[in-house]
Amino acid sequence: MGRGRVEFRVLGPLEVTAGGQSLEVGGARARAVLAMLLVHANQVVSAERLAEELWPGHPADRAAANLQVRLSELRKALRSAGEADRLVTRPPGYLLRVASEEVDAVRFELLASAGDAALAAGDAPVAAQRLEEALSLWRGPALAGVDPAPFALAEAGRLEETRLAALESRVEAHLACGRHRELTAELETLTAAHPLRERLWSQRMLALYRAGRQADALVAYRELRAILGGMPPPVDKTEIKPTDPYEVIRRAIVYLTNNEARMDYPRYRRAGLPTSSGLVESLVKLFNRRVKGTEKFWNATQAEMILQLRAAYLSEDERLNKHLGNRPMSPYRRYQTTRKRKTG
């Protein structure tokens, strides 16, 4: 076989292609050796570590002999594609030379990072495109068909987590593009498949709310509350209060649904005051915002503060109406009157 573009695919069944043709890389153990070298691409992996990881419990000399057989199989496969120089012997072990664009997992992570960057910059259409490209590289569970050695399980778990994070970001980008109606069915499937992914639940509630399905948004909230309420207590036996952030969102949806008609006026929006749908979006964005360097989501107190400010504003509205003899007041006039009273 002539020399052609080589691709190493781990986002699904492990596969090596050269010039579009799949290479036979040997049996399950040879594939496991290749997978471990790919996980540590362009790094020396010691022969001792390879033997211990892939032949645990075997005598050292027997494990070393097995390793040499599998390496010979890999070299033969690479030589058939004119890529014999890929696998390098370098004390105390072996190194697999690859370029970043030749590994689908690396391309996936680069595209996903570009999508996240575009989303953070407010360019939702570009973010959606990059994230769709990234997710299209997946062909199934990562490292499928590789022996379940500890390194393979750890790497497959890491890659699956990055896939789910990219999926959530892709949903967020589509929501920002106004495709909430198209997402409701997908989000229902995703929350069923991943019931503890909080970001997916908040996106599902937001999509349903934007689609005019406030009652279904509350049903989704109750489903989540039932799931989290049934979780076992942590090791320290402290009381679980998993519903607090979702209770804030639920209260926001109920309140804003009841007041939608009187809150969403064009001049009210032009005056720079938050609309009801804008408030729910703010709550969900706050909920999804991660603090740099931690895994904590937003504190429910922040959303409570928003609701308290809105309640205080409505109290001011009632007081102003009473002061003016209960005469009808447009939202814009209410805003102007409040500003004059504060600056006067």
Characterization of the model:
This protein has 344 residues and is mainly alpha-helical. The protein has two domains: 6-100, Arc Repressor Mutant, subunit A, CATH 1.10.10.10; 182-344. The protein is 62% helix and 6% strand. The protein is built from 15 helices and six strands. It has a three-stranded antiparallel β-sheet, with no helix packed on it. Strand 1 and strand 2 (15-18) form a beta hairpin. Helix 4 packs antiparallel against helix 5 (124-136), helix 6 runs parallel beside helix 8 (198-210) and helix 10 (244-258) runs antiparallel to helix 13. The longest helix has 27 residues, at 150-176. The radius of gyration is 28 Å and the shape is elongated. The N and C termini lie far apart (85 Å).
